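One chain given next:
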Amino acid sequence: MKTTRIISLAAAGFLAVTGAALAHEMDTDQDGLYTLTEMQTEYAELTQSDYDALDTNADGAIDADELEAAIASGALPAME
C-alpha cells in the first residue's frame, strides 16, 4: 500500500513539472503572464469569454496561479 502511494505521488509530481514546463513554453514573451493569444496555442477553442472567466483577479491576464487553478478545477484540461 505504501509503495502505491509513493508511486502515485511521484507520478503527480512528474505531471506537475511537465505541466509547468509546457506552461513556460506557452508564455512566448516570458513575462510570466498568459495572453489569450498565448493560451490559444495550447487551448485552441478558448474564447475571450472563457479567458475572462479564468482571469479571477480581473487584471486582464492569466498568471501561473490562475492557470494552475483552472486546470485543477477542470475548467481547462491538463497540458500535454
Summary: The radius of gyration is 14 Å. The beta strands are 33-34, 62-63. The domain at 2-73 is CATH 1.10.238 (Recoverin; domain 1).
